[in-house]
């Protein structure tokens, strides 16, 4: 059986690497000393980015280790491991589920999943989401001419999941995605706002905030 990194070791190493990244700011006379000292002691940790975090089998222990250090946790998942979420104890402070398509055909086109029955597994996650006692967010990443259609389909998924918040966010043409998508796939803020308004009308969720630099709109 493959050995997995120890939860405590993951957090300690992450904190240490963060300190190294920030170390160069210590001698900068323009840096607020109090804020610098605060930055050395993180209070928030996100399990996200490269790969699917729910594939790590010891997330519950990871959350506990974070809590011991006064760190709140955010978990971002593509929803293809519903059993991992069902078994999480304790749950993270906030749980994000990325929803990238309104139906199976668009999902397979956009996601190109390697997991068998990925669409069905993601929907299973949405079905159990109301039973998870934590803050729950659906994150809809909008890709122009790829998945910004069928708002009724997205609305059905939102109604199924009953999240506390829905984040409608523009895809950003950065990193490795530049090799897979054209620049025109990045929608303007007006495009995102128009789509968010349609979702609001269909679901009853109301727009609570907008942040143009990130192309993000929050519904609740």
| Number of DSSP helical runs | 8
- Helical percentage: 25-40%
The strand order across the widest sheet is 1-2-3-4-5-7-6
Describe the global form: globular
* Straight-line N-to-C gap: 43 Å
Comma- or semicolon-separated keywords:
seven-stranded mixed beta sheet; 2 domains; 220 residues; TIM Barrel; alpha/beta; globular
Brief summary:
This protein has 220 residues and is α/β, with parallel strands linked by helices.
In terms of topology, how is this protein built?
Blueprint: H1 7-22, H2 33-39, E1 44-47, H3 59-68, E2 72-77, H4 82-86, E3 94-99, H5 104-111, H6 118-128, E4 135-142, H7 151-161, E5 165-170, H8 189-203, E6 207-211, E7 216-219
Parallel strand pairs: 1-2, 2-3, 3-4, 4-5
Antiparallel strand pairs: 5-7, 6-7
Question: What features would you describe in this structure?
Answer:
The protein is α/β, with parallel strands linked by helices and 220 residues long. The protein has 2 domains: 1-41, no CATH class; 43-219, TIM Barrel, CATH 3.20.20. Helix content is 38%, strand content 18%. The chain is built from 8 helices and 7 strands. The chain has helices spanning 7-22, 33-39, 59-68, 82-86, 104-111, 118-128, 151-161, 189-203, and strands at residues 44-47, 72-77, 94-99, 135-142, 165-170, 207-211, 216-219. The protein has a 7-stranded mixed β-sheet, with helices on one face. Strand 4 (135-142), helix 7 and strand 5 (165-170) form a beta-alpha-beta unit. The termini are far apart.
